[in-house]
Specification:
4 copies of one chain form a homotetramer. By secondary structure, chain A is of the alpha+beta class. The first copy, chain A, contains 4 helices and 6 strands; from the N terminus they run ααββαββββα.
Chain lengths: 141, 141, 141, 141
Amino acid sequence: MNAMLELGRDVLARQPFSGLLGAELVSFETGRAAIELPLRAELHQQNGFAHGGVVCYLADNALTFAGGSVMGSAVVTSEFKINFLRPAQGERLRAEADVLRAGRSQAVVRCEIYALQGAERILCAAAQGTITPLAAPRERG
Amino acid sequence: MNAMLELGRDVLARQPFSGLLGAELVSFETGRAAIELPLRAELHQQNGFAHGGVVCYLADNALTFAGGSVMGSAVVTSEFKINFLRPAQGERLRAEADVLRAGRSQAVVRCEIYALQGAERILCAAAQGTITPLAAPRERG
Amino acid sequence: MNAMLELGRDVLARQPFSGLLGAELVSFETGRAAIELPLRAELHQQNGFAHGGVVCYLADNALTFAGGSVMGSAVVTSEFKINFLRPAQGERLRAEADVLRAGRSQAVVRCEIYALQGAERILCAAAQGTITPLAAPRERG
Amino acid sequence: MNAMLELGRDVLARQPFSGLLGAELVSFETGRAAIELPLRAELHQQNGFAHGGVVCYLADNALTFAGGSVMGSAVVTSEFKINFLRPAQGERLRAEADVLRAGRSQAVVRCEIYALQGAERILCAAAQGTITPLAAPRERG
């Protein structure tokens, strides 16, 4: 495993919520990140699909990691939008995020969330958002 | 407890992911919904704040419930955007969603997410999205 | 007319595109801005309503002015989202923008766009976005 | 010129606002559309770049045309979000929109807006939105 992926996994391991959900950083390089999440009943909504909040978690986190890959680890997702395209169901979900443009003050990132079932891969959501450097404590407080 | 709130709580109780997080529907009337979530360490990111995915879960679900309050329970969040304004920390989070405009094919809803600590209430995120009727199985498949 | 409104009108007057459309800054105070636009056939789409691009122009500009009212005039709209609620038709459109939260690095602003016809006022779109300080030339180049 | 492009150009020609701005539909096929706009001083904001409203117009219209290419001409942009990446300057702007997913009730579309100067092509904005069938008059009224 390369050093950058190892670093990213350390960050993810320090997020208790990512542990509760069971997310795995599967790819992390300059300008891109991919996070996967095995699905289980606890992550469902009332119709047996992954809850929208689970899909949002993946989008939010993949966007942040992709932005952090070019801006450093002290970043936050400032905002994003997500469109849900199909019910999220299968063995696992996979979020892939790619930086469209990075500057000193922000990175703009897109993300696609896929449902994986065997060899099949279905696009189930698409997101776009802004990653910014973590502001000084006074600013965020 | 009124019949509408009871109905809404039944729906929430059938969402395993809402149970995993510990969300409570605290208000549900025509055109509005409020969901609260007691914070605990399992819901944090690496800096001790609620994870962005937790805040997104609340926004997504409150938007859906508010939309459902005017369109019926068979609805989904089609899309939304969220801006994170301040770190989400405190005893609990509270999402309040209000319908801006509802028609036959969609409801547009806004939501604010507050961090509650004692008597204090801090706005920490704002969302806006579209709720649509759940399409027939063929459409969503 | 107060000094702040006068300042804002000077900025608007230096935007050729705002002149082409005929926009007027009708209110400008700390944390808020309102821009109006008399409708005419040139601003229509094919069904006789104001073109979505006209509504977007108003949202974009009102968001920027509201953000600028708290951050200074050297700001840009970094991003926004807009939901169209009803066809935009009437004598004029009016965009009202209010700052939700302003810090040193960004302001988050909401905006509603109304169609005005006589005494009637119909909500036809809602927007939410981020205003940031204009970056140094090297950053934006 | 193929029949589909001709049809699309007829629709654009019936939008007075597109005529005022000078937009040209340069490509139109199933699932995609590209619109170009020669820049001139009238379309600027106060710093000599294309006004954000001009960029939004292009995004909005390209999204609608791409959605309409798979759903028929009676469609509207229901909502979209846009991130501005760089100042929009050059000889012309070009918006390229691609459908991510189309169903009976909506199409989700992404769009990139480029500034063109000679052989150079610079990405200056990215958008994502939802196209829906034009509702019956009672619904939209």
